[in-house]
Design a protein that fits this description.
Nucleotidyltransferase, domain 5; 7 helices; 23% strand; alpha/beta
Length: 256
């Protein structure tokens, strides 16, 4: 069994694969200060309870990590290798993924490369992936299967926190869609800007990117906030919650 680990700025998402089947999934808060021993002690009961594996981490045959938090990468890698006794791959230079047409390929976030690999395999052709988390990224894969780059924007939660922190009369509101774009209350005004405004941001960028590609491009969404934003977007055609985990599995297979 393969453990795929996606370490984001806010959460680490872990998926346990039995072949191509996602057997279990869980989310942990990203705490870079955790040691390898703390993580091993935390992951072992999760394997036992959520995946029904009495052997805990010893049931693994492999593992792979994509991380945008460098301080957390090494503790996770060591936890897996020391507690499971298997090699843990880390997405970065040296692993086979897909051609990266970027000014400096080493500056591309590993999660963006992973999403591009999954999108290319699942849909083929030109694809734009909107990943909605702490940041919202739009990643563009060309019709030839190359990662071209894209856009990085503040995520919905990030915008909400900044608004409440800098606006004396603008308090935090529930992140739900308002009944209309023209809000009748301050809370609805903020929700319109955050939810509908974010959907419009994605739509506008996707249309510009499609025009620059010079042809059709499928737009798909993933990330913790994808299901919140996608219903209000005219361009997002499909939501894939486990796209990053699936990309990690595919990259592991490419490099095994």
């Amino acid at each position: 069994m393969l453990l795929a680990i996606d370490i984001g700025n806010t959460h680490a998402t872990l998926g346990l694969y039995d072949g191509e089947r996602l057997r279990a999934e869980w989310r942990l808060s990203t705490h870079p200060a955790r040691t390898a021993d703390e993580l091993g002690a935390l992951l072992t009961p999760l394997m036992e309870r959520r995946a029904g594996e009495a052997r805990g981490l010893r049931a693994l045959t492999g593992a792979i990590i994509a991380s945008v938090v460098p301080a957390a990468t090494e503790p996770y890698r060591r936890a897996v290798e020391e507690w499971a006794g298997v090699r843990c791959l880390v997405v970065g230079p040296g692993l086979k993924t897909l051609p990266i047409r970027y000014a400096d390929p080493e500056q591309v976030g590993p999660d963006r490369v992973v999403n591009a690999v999954a999108a290319r395999r699942l849909w083929g052709g030109a694809v734009i992936v909107a990943d909605l988390g702490t940041a919202t990224t739009l990643d563009v894969v060309s019709a030839a299967g190359e990662f071209l780059g894209g856009a990085i924007c503040p995520g919905v939660h990030t915008c909400a926190e900044a608004l409440s922190a800098r606006g004396a009369r603008l308090s935090r509101v529930p992140l739900t869609a308002p009944p209309a774009a023209i809000g009748a209350t301050t809370a609805e005004n903020i929700q319109s800007g955050l939810i509908l405004g974010h959907a419009a941001l994605i739509d506008g960028l996707a249309r510009r990117m499609r025009a620059e590609l010079g042809g059709a491009a499928r737009v798909v969404a993933t990330g913790g906030l994808a299901s919140l934003i996608a219903p209000h977007s005219a361009e997002i055609e499909e939501v894939r919650p486990h796209l990053t985990l699936e990309g990690l599995r595919l990259i592991y297979e490419q490099n095994r």
